[in-house]
Automatic annotation (TrEMBL):
UniProt domain Aminotransferase class V: residue ranges: 21-298
Gene Ontology biological-process annotations: glycine biosynthetic process, by transamination of glyoxylate
Organism: Oceanobacillus indicireducens
Binding site for substrate: 336
Coiled coil: none
Cofactor: pyridoxal 5'-phosphate
Entry keyword annotation includes Transferase: yes
Subunit structure: Heterodimer of a large and a small subunit.
Pfam families given in the database record: Aminotran_5 (PF00266)
Entry protein name: Tritium exchange subunit
């Protein structure tokens, strides 16, 4: 009966408006109505990516779009760099290795970001790099890589394409694809984009299109050239996830109603700061530094003296509060507080209050209300910055 409070890094809660949009009657993907829906919606997604390029849609999870980025832009045997700072960077490495690429792995400890200087040093001895792959927002550790700076390094120190996995970023963090010089930017529907799983979105720069055209990839379903050809007609090569595209149109409404993507990403910043301040007030450690902390997900270390699995199961059973655990070697050591997509400061206050209730149940030593108060202070000060106080 009580609703589950889903504070995960995807799938995430779906706004009612989006659910209703997805409940519309089916239309043919070769109809005029579809072409209108597709064209109008893709135009409205462009500012979310920060691009003037076409947005392409795959009826798939984010992984297929990452795979598409790999198979279309590089060929087996070529040298590439993958920057990996966590589980999803390692995922990118696996895709590239599977395709027979020669992978140079720039690996960081989990919880750290890759800095400009590290990439400069890493690229120095390498002369024939075709692409640099990186995770924008590392969902396993809650860090955000400095993509703007890394993009500039790639441009200044190589001829490589810069290919970015922003599956858990786009919609919740700012992205300026064209201005920063990203060549392929990929996201998925079920993270910060407020949709169910099943739709991947990507955009490709002019530089990358030239490489893709010359490359003549053998991919069929994931062939980006055919998606581009069909996009010119306002369609996709095969049957797309029509209902999710109807939902995406409603997502664009919501973001526009909030005042545009800059306002949406600002809200994510506020929520990030609320969570971090609350944990500090509760003397619970965070995995990452403030400097590279993700606006969409926060990795939190196990509160001292608690068994993490027991605590998380208790929060879910007693308070319906559902957090995600740690991945890989961080399992049992951290949990992940998702604050992406359809999530607001009021939701953060609720989750922290229930977290505190759970801490009291386990006799964790803290001042009750300290976390809520710290989060509330951040929220109120963000409101004061925005609106005049009378
Ligand atoms: C979730 C996620 C993926 C994988 O997306 P799927 O939709 O599960 O295929 C890839 N990269 C990042 C950063 C993610 O958060």
């Amino acid at each position: 009966m009580y609703p589950t409070i889903l504070r995960h890094p995807g799938p995430t809660p779906i706004p009612k408006k989006v659910e209703l949009a997805m409940a519309q009657s089916m239309i043919s993907h070769r109809s005029e109505e579809f072409v209108k829906l597709y064209r109008e919606t893709m135009e409205r997604v462009k500012p979310i990516f920060g691009t003037k390029q076409e947005i392409l849609l795959l009826p798939s999870g984010g992984t297929a779009a990452l795979e598409a980025a790999v198979v279309n832009s590089v060929s087996p045997g070529e040298e590439i760099v993958v920057i990996t700072v966590g589980a999803f960077g390692d995922y990118f490495v696996s895709i590239c290795e599977k395709y027979g690429l020669k992978v140079h792995k720039l690996e960081k400890n989990w919880g750290e970001a890759c800095t400009e200087n590290e990439l400069i040093e890493f690229l120095k001895p390498l002369s024939n790099i075709k692409a640099v792959f990186v995770t924008h927002n590392e969902t396993s550790t809650g860090i955000i890589n400095p993509i703007k700076q890394l993009a500039r390094v790639v441009q200044e120190h190589s001829d490589a394409l810069f290919i970015v996995d922003s599956v858990s970023g786009i919609g919740g963090v700012s992205a300026r694809m064209d201005e920063w010089g990203i060549d392929i930017l990929v996201t998925g529907s079920q993270k910060a984009m407020m949709l169910p799983p099943g739709l991947a979105l990507l955009a490709v720069s002019e530089k990358a299109w030239k490489v893709i055209e010359a490359n003549r990839s053998t991919a069929y379903y994931l062939n980006l050239l055919s998606y581009r050809d069909w996009a010119e007609k306002g369609m996709t090569p095969n049957t797309p996830a029509v209902s999710l595209i109807m939902g995406l149109s409603a997502v664009c409404d919501l973001i526009e109603e909030e005042g545009g993507i800059a306002k949406t990403t600002e809200r994510h910043e506020v929520m990030k700061n609320m969570v971090r301040s609350a944990m500090k007030a509760l003397s619970i450690d965070l995995l990452t530094s403030d400097e590279f902390a993700s606006p969409t997900i926060t990795a939190i270390r196990t509160p001292e003296g608690l068994d993490l699995a027991t605590y998380l199961a208790h929060l879910k059973k007693k308070y319906q509060l559902d957090f995600a655990g740690g991945l890989g070697h961080l399992q049992g050591k951290i949990f992940r507080f998702g604050h992406m997509g359809y999530c607001f400061p009021s939701d953060i206050l609720q989750a922290i209050s229930l977290m505190e209730a759970g801490l009291q149940d386990f006799a964790y030593s803290f001042e009750p209300g300290a976390g809520v108060k710290a989060a509330q202070d951040v929220y109120l000060s963000s409101l004061r910055k925005r609106t005049p106080v009378f």
